[in-house]
Design a protein that fits this description.
This protein is an alpha/beta fold. The chain has one domain: Rossmann fold (3-Layer(aba) Sandwich), CATH 3.40.50. 42% of the residues lie in helices and 15% in strands. Strands 1, 2, 3, 4, 5, 8, 9 and 10 form an eight-stranded mixed sheet that branches. The chain has a two-stranded antiparallel sheet with strand order 6-7. Helix 1 crosses helix 2.
Length: 325
């Protein structure tokens, strides 16, 4: 990895989390994944949440959850009536718990987080071969095939004490979306298949489910389409994740292009998390979020320095909404 790419990754992940990931992956190579298995086994036996390297459970960039949590807390505080969130693509439950904990910040407001995921393998051999991180995708595919990811999701929601707010809906989005009422969701979050056609279809289905004034948001907008090498990324729209030669960064080309095509240009985004507000059935507006990252503002289930070592102690207190500045 060249120095420029390494600096970009440190900026994206943050120095401490980037260092932790590199250290854990290095130790895993030396110990044949014994280190991650140790943390996973300890979490499963002590009742702590687990979002480490084992089973590919570390989905996404940790600091993105600061912006997700900040925005969701603000949305929960500003409205009345039940808050209905929908997540497309859940895996081990990190983002689902983020939405549920945001809802917990307002005890007087009812709501739910519906999680749509087949919890079965969708990655082909070609997906894994073409990926910039084939070892991670291979472990994910094996874990999904064996049903271990769904087991971890159920464990994590119980450990975070939000299982009562989360409703899993097992199936593909295209199979279940027609059963969901149109314009019924305050927030819809997309983090499923990263191929262009799949992302574009997910966005179109999800857009119809967002109520006026609600949010359509998602993960993995590592670079907006205007910032990537178009020729290279156009040839990799059906790949999961690649290294963009223009930026030197991991890029989900299908996500970047699908989001750009649907909204017609650049959109509001923070460290790869993107969001737009529904103004009408046909128009969308950028979202303003003046929040500056601080580790103390992460949702409590992802404060790994607590949850990995102190079991449920980090999750017993009801979280307060982080302040925006």
């Amino acid at each position: 990895m060249n120095p420029r790419a390494a600096l970009k990754l440190i900026e994206k992940y943050g120095f401490f989390d980037f260092t932790k990931i590199v250290l854990e992956r290095s130790l895993n190579r030396l110990t044949r994944h014994a280190v991650s298995r140790f943390f996973y086994d300890r979490a499963m036996t002590t009742g702590a949440v687990y979002f480490g390297e084992h089973l590919g459970a570390r989905q996404g960039v940790l600091r993105r959850h600061f912006f997700m949590y900040s925005l969701a807390c603000r949305e929960v505080q500003r409205g009345n009536g039940p808050f209905h969130a929908l997540e497309v693509g859940t895996y081990a439950g990190a983002s689902a718990i983020t939405w549920a904990l945001a809802l917990r910040t307002r005890p007087d407001r009812a709501g739910e987080v519906v999680c749509v995921d087949p919890w079965r393998n969708y990655l082909t051999a070609e997906d894994i071969r073409a990926s910039a991180v084939p070892d991670v995708l291979r472990e994910m595919a094996d874990a999904l095939e064996e049903g271990r990811v769904l087991q971890l999701f159920e464990h994590n929601t119980r450990a975070a004490q939000v299982a009562d707010l989360i409703q899993p809906l097992k199936g593909r989005f295209e199979e279940v979306s027609s059963s969901l009422p149109p314009a019924s969701r305050d927030l819809v979050y997309i983090d499923a298949n990263h191929r262009y056609e799949a992302v574009r279809a997910d966005i179109e289905r999800a857009a119809a489910l967002v109520k006026p004034g609600g949010l359509l948001c998602g993960d993995d907008l590592d670079q907006q389409w205007s910032e990537v090498d178009h020729a290279y990324c156009l040839s990799h729209l059906e790949s999961d994740v690649v290294v963009d030669p223009r930026s030197g960064q991991f890029v989900h080309a299908g996500v970047s292009k699908a989001v750009w095509d649907f909204f017609g240009g650049p959109i509001s985004a923070w460290n790869g998390f993107w969001a737009m507000r529904k103004a009408s059935d046909t128009t969308w507006e950028p979202v303003a979020l003046e929040a500056h990252f601080r580790s103390g503002g992460l949702p409590p289930h992802l404060k790994w320095w607590k949850t990995k070592t102190q079991s449920l102690l980090a999750l017993r207190a009801r979280p307060a909404a982080p302040k925006s500045s």
